[in-house]
TrEMBL record:
Catalytic activity: Hydrolysis of terminal, non-reducing beta-D-glucosyl residues with release of beta-D-glucose
Protein name: beta-glucosidase
Organism for this UniProt entry: Karstenula rhodostoma CBS 690.94
Name of the top EC class for this enzyme: hydrolase
Purpose of the protein: Plays an important role in cellulose degradation. Shows hydrolytic activity against several glycosidic compounds.
PANTHER family: GLYCOSYL HYDROLASE, PUTATIVE (AFU_ORTHOLOGUE AFUA_3G12600)-RELATED
Listed SUPFAM superfamilies: (Trans)glycosidases
The keyword Hydrolase belongs to this UniProt entry's keyword annotation: yes
Region (Disordered): 337-365
């Protein structure tokens, strides 16, 4: 019996608006769920190093065990089958597959075996794997050898060889590849703000090394070049026999002008989208170079593409992988004519939670930056479609909810996660409307995330899952939240039969 009735809801008219081959499911990342951080030959990653450095994770936790999905992956697949998903997006841990990471370093057969078993288990359950090669965990050995992405000449061949091993070992069964997850968040959180691995920033009160004014732009450039090389390699050497698709996933939230009638605020909102999204999307899907607004502010601190690199990068993604969570109201931080500090990495912006008319960007979650802003998602889908005309795979979207930090067993008040249900109802509804009303080509939706997990430097303090996890228990016991049921029934309504 169905829990939710969509035939008598505002979404009634959206019935069957998504195609039969639309993929839906949940996304995860290896460091956030696997645990087994040093099991069966796995080498340490930069995130293991961060977690074992006092003061770097807000609750002092590590990801040593996380959700123990390394041990319980068969249970996770069974859970997803119950949840009715058709696809699962997960990432591979580079240092589980090549413990030291480098192109001449040994492959760890136990690590390959783990992912091979996971892929087989998914296929047996009728769930299509979407595999991310890089979700932020650089092998620690490469950080120590040459500062990883800060040395593109040494990093790129190492990443390309890692990708080759993955295509060789898994490509017979995996047809959907994502090279990088959110190169922008990776570059800014790890090299500008510094809270993420490898903890580099100009903020000397907190971090001993780094240069916020230059390093994020180098790291972004390295990711673009290495992504593109892997894309070309896959197309030339693997796609002819493996017939898969491959692309990149970008992060990006909607930015709207604080005062919708102010030309300066309108320009600020456009600049926000360019610094956050077009930084990567213009070189890959658009005109083939960084946006003019970035060059104007950053000058020579932003690397340049040689003609050959431009050609390599432009057109190097079969689809637009889209991670998005929220929306902001923005205006200029520094007034026109005054110098913008070289550490600015967001495009000279000031943010507010309400606009000039007092309209809120949305309901608060349990995470400061994240509010329920489906209006922004609706606008963003159309902005990306209009600017890039590339099929969109939504690869992450979701929310935390207040009141979920309780001891096991969680009560019905916790498991009935109305805030998350409202979020998913609104966002996925906007997705279906963009498809139905404006013909935006959207092919997947992955909720973030399957399980409450280790939310990076936030530790276990942010619960994004449709499954509540008891991190105190030996088995990391899983309790389905009601949003999981909601999603199964909602997609049952939206996807054509
Ligand atoms: C994503 N923002 O990161 C990551 O891909 C996930 O691993 C992570 O757990 C999830 O979102 C939730 O945070 C983001 O500030 C981090 O807009 C920050 C932002 C967006 C995405």
């Amino acid at each position: 019996m169905a829990d939710f009735d969509f035939d008598d809801s505002p979404e009634a008219g959206l019935k069957g608006s998504l195609g039969k081959d639309f993929f839906w499911g949940y996304a995860t990342a290896a460091p956030q769920i696997e645990g087994a951080w040093s099991t069966a030959g796995k080498g340490p990653s930069t995130w293991d190093t961060l977690a074992h450095t006092p003061g770097r994770v807000v609750d002092g936790s590590t990801a040593d065990d996380a959700c123990r999905s390394y041990d319980f992956f068969r249970d996770d697949v069974a859970l997803m089958k119950r949840y009715g998903v058709t696809a699962y997006r997960f990432s591979l841990s580079w240092s589980r597959i090549i413990p030291l990471g480098g192109k001449d370093d040994a492959v760890n057969e136990a690590g390959v075996g783990f992912y091979s078993d996971l892929i087989d288990e998914l296929l047996k359950a009728g769930i299509t794997p979407f595999v991310t090669l890089f979700h932020w965990d650089v092998p620690q050995a490469l950080e120590e050898r040459y500062k990883s992405m800060l040395d593109p000449g040494r990093y790129i061949p190492d990443f390309v060889r890692y990708a080759r091993v993955c295509f060789e070992r898994f490509g017979d069964r995996v047809g959907h590849w994502i090279t990088y997850n959110e190169p922008g968040v990776y570059a800014l959180a790890g090299y500008a703000g510094g809270a993420h691995a490898p903890n580099r920033s100009s903020d000397r009160a907190k971090y001993s090394e780094g240069d916020t004014s230059t390093e994020p732009w180098i790291v972004g450039h390295t990711q673009l070049l290495s992504h593109a090389q892997v894309y070309r390699m896959y197309k030339e050497e693997f796609a002819p026999t493996q017939h898969g698709t491959i692309g990149i996933t970008l992060s990006g939230n909607w930015s709207a002008p604080y005062d919708a009638s102010s030309p300066a605020d309108i320009a600020a909102a456009q600049r926000a989208l360019e610094f956050e999204i077009a930084w990567f999307a213009d070189p890959v899907f658009g005109p083939g170079d960084y946006p003019a607004s970035m060059r104007a502010q950053l000058g020579a601190r932003l690397p340049t593409f040689s003609p050959a690199e431009k050609k390599l990068v432009n057109g190097s993604s079969d689809f637009y992988g889209m991670n998005t969570y929220t929306a902001f109201f923005v205006r200029d931080a520094v007034p026109p004519g005054q110098p913008i500090p070289p550490e600015d990495h967001k495009g000279n912006l000031a943010w507010s939670d309400t606009n000039s008319e007092g309209v809120s960007r949305g309901a608060e979650s349990d995470t400061e930056w994240l509010r329920t802003s489906p209006w922004g998602f609706a606008a963003l889908l159309r902005w990306i479609w209009a600017r890039y005309h590339t099929p969109i795979f939504v690869t992450e979207n979701g929310t935390t909810a207040r009141g979920e930090h309780v001891s096991a067993p969680p009560g019905d008040d916790v498991l009935n996660d109305v805030h998350r249900i409202d979020f998913y109802r609104a966002y996925v509804g906007e997705l279906a409307r963009a498809v139905k009303e404006d013909g935006v080509d959207i092919r997947s939706y992955f909720g973030w995330t399957l399980l409450d997990n280790w939310e990076w430097a936030k530790g276990y303090t942010d619960r994004f899952g449709v499954t509540w996890v008891d991190f105190e228990s030996e088995e990391k016991t899983r309790y389905p939240k009601r949003s999981a049921t909601f999603m199964r029934e909602y997609f049952g309504h939206l996807i054509a039969r």
